[in-house]
Design goal:
The chain has three domains: about 5-130, OB fold (Dihydrolipoamide Acetyltransferase, E2P), CATH 2.40.50.140; about 135-285, Rossmann fold; about 375-430, no CATH class. It is about 40% helix and about 20% strand. The protein is built from twelve helices and 14 strands. β1 (about 50-60) and β2 form a beta hairpin. It starts with about 30 loop residues before the first helix and ends with a strand. This is Exodeoxyribonuclease 7 large subunit. GO terms for molecular function: exodeoxyribonuclease VII activity; nucleic acid binding.
């Protein structure tokens, strides 16, 4: 029996006037409602099965959960629904990335033609394989110091050019441009487009990062993408991309997804923005706020300067009101009289010292003359000198024929000793 051989079953009754799917022809086709009812009735015969997988999306609507479960060894996925009555019986901490086993029963909606599985039970198996690998990589990069705040570069206050890596014609690009230009109309961008999910995401983002990092005009780089489930954001946790961002010389801002999204790029980037809009607000200053700040600072400077000038004027007036500055002539006259007295005393002291020094000099000169050989010569004495200027003191030192020089009061004469000895000593012939 095939699905098209099922005519009736539980649930809604197919339209009576519609041809059964097994009897349909080109001239007598079945209706969509009859086909969906037939599929629904066939699917309803399937039993509940236990399936293992990783939760890749988890959306709560009106107390019910609409999620997707992915095979951990392939890309196969199924849609699952958890009604509020079942949700109260399963662990409350279930979410994206969890590795679970679930009891599911097929569920086909006749009205929309959607096929999914209703969950009647679910429990943890452990972290999903992907999440577990990411956590191990996160721990390794943290150990290497790539998340250290000390190595993160400061963003420029007002970048001359912003490098933007995002998807072409994406909402993230529009959000960044719109909010940045609202804050600073003259802001400039160099945008490099790259796939933001799938196999092309990592190589294209790496190439865009390399081009922007090599551009000396780019002051900061923003990598932006809208929200998505962890499966679509995996590229931004790729080890190659994370290490390239850590090695970039230009500051990098991560603006991936929403506040609750947390790829590894957020940890290694120099700044993590919760959304692309938040990135624009944190990279570019608000021109209105800066103008208000300048006006405030100018007002404060004017107030401080006015106060300082007023204070200095008051001090100057206080100094000018003092007697010494108001009428300085008496002080100058008193000081002039005092200076004249000191000058007179100085002159008297110097004169007395000069007189005393003159008298002492005269006395010393008289003593010096009394002791001088010139005074002795003036009385008629003479001094005999041997050759070499040696004074003759002993007659024995001047035998006959010795040349002598006789010094008298006025000049000197040459003489020769005759060697004769007398009571007064040797005689000399001049």
């Amino acid at each position: 029996m095939t699905v098209f051989e099922v005519a009736t079953g539980p649930g809604e009754t197919p339209p009576a006037d519609a041809v059964a799917p097994r009897d349909s022809t080109a001239d007598a086709p079945t209706s969509v409602a009859r086909l969906n009812a037939t599929i629904r009735d066939f699917v309803a015969r399937w039993n509940t099965v236990w399936v293992e997988g990783e939760i890749t999306s988890w959306n709560l609507r009106a107390g019910n959960v609409f999620a997707r479960l992915k095979d951990t060894r392939s890309d196969a996925q199924i849609s699952i629904r958890i009604w509020s009555s079942v949700r109260a019986r399963i662990p409350s901490d279930l979410g994206v990335g969890d590795h679970v086993v679930a009891a599911v029963k097929s569920d086909y909606f006749v009205k929309s033609g959607d096929f999914s599985f209703a969950v009647s039970a679910m429990k943890h198996v452990g972290l999903g394989d992907q999440l577990e690998r990411l956590e191990k990589l996160r721990a390794q990069l943290r150990h290497e110091g790539l998340f250290d705040p000390a190595r993160k570069k400061r963003l420029p206050f007002l970048p001359h050019m912003i490098g933007l890596i995002t998807g072409e014609r994406s909402d993230a690009e529009k959000d960044v441009h719109r909010n940045a230009e609202l804050r600073w109309p003259q802001v400039r961008f160099r945008t490099e487009y790259a796939a933001v999910q799938g196999e092309r995401c990592v190589p294209e983002t790496l190439a865009a990062l390399a081009r922007l990092d090599a551009d000396p005009e780019v002051d900061v780089i923003v990598i932006a993408r809208g929200g998505g489930d962890p499966q679509t954001l995996l590229g931004f946790s790729d080890e190659r991309l994370v290490r390239a961002v850590a090695a970039a010389s230009t500051p990098v801002v991560s603006a991936i997804g929403h506040e609750n999204d947390h790829p590894l790029l957020d940890d290694v980037a120099d700044l993590r923005a919760s959304t692309p809009t938040d990135a624009a607000k944190r990279v570019v200053p608000d021109v209105g706020e800066q103008r208000a700040l300048i006006a405030q600072l100018r007002s404060r400077a004017t107030t401080r300067l006015t106060h300082r000038v007023g204070h200095d004027i008051a001090q100057l007036e206080q100094l000018r009101s003092r007697p010494a500055l108001r009428s300085p002539d008496p002080i100058i006259e008193n000081r002039a009289q005092e200076l004249w007295l000191l000058l007179s005393r100085g002159r008297d002291t110097v004169a007395r010292q000069l007189d005393s020094a003159g008298r002492k000099t005269t006395e010393l000169r008289a003593s010096l003359r009394a002791l001088s050989p010139a005074a002795t010569l003036a009385r008629g004495y003479a001094i005999a000198h041997l050759e070499g200027g040696v004074i003759l003191r002993d007659a024995a030192d001047a035998p006959a024929g010795t040349a002598l020089t006789i010094t008298v009061d006025r000049g000197s004469v040459a003489a020769v000793s005759d060697g004769e000895v007398s009571e007064g000593g040797p005689t000399a012939t001049t």
